[in-house]
Amino acid sequence: MNNRPEQLMPAFDRLPEPDQIAQMATWLAQAGLDGLELTNEAAGLKLRIRVGQAATVPPAAPAIAPQVDAGAGHVAVKTPYFGHLCLTHPLRDTPFAPAGTRVAQGDVVALLTLDSLQVPVTAPVAGTVVDVVGQPGALVGYGAPVMHILPD
């Protein structure tokens, strides 16, 4: 039983479109999960997604190819999954990568949390964090920009 007041999942009051279900299955496979079940008894809805053994999962790194913003030369750090954005380390009060921080390619710069699941958000390039655009605790989707890095 979850005693936390915040809602971790968006409202499940209708079934998703088939392309949305396919995207969720891809995300589950990329995260190494074998399935997901959502139930809304009040609405009479139940959705069960199972990822089969034969499913092809693209390589984990890099999930999203870095794209340089031509105007500023910045590279956006984008989320590899969906969940609530966590910009500070859960065991410390310090941010992973505030503006002005130098990061190496592959450094963890944020986390996505969904209940007890934590997915790292990594820097696609080495450089300096120029701004953080993601809001702590916000529910973000796949590919959402959370910060920008000026590459070395």
Automatic annotation (TrEMBL):
<dbReference type="InterPro" id="IPR000089">
    <property type="entry name" value="Biotin_lipoyl"/>
</dbReference>
<feature type="domain" description="Lipoyl-binding">
    <location>
        <begin position="94"/>
        <end position="149"/>
    </location>
</feature>
<protein>
    <recommendedName>
        <fullName>Lipoyl-binding domain-containing protein</fullName>
    </recommendedName>
</protein>
<dbReference type="Pfam" id="PF00364">
    <property type="entry name" value="Biotin_lipoyl"/>
</dbReference>
<dbReference type="InterPro" id="IPR011053">
    <property type="entry name" value="Single_hybrid_motif"/>
</dbReference>
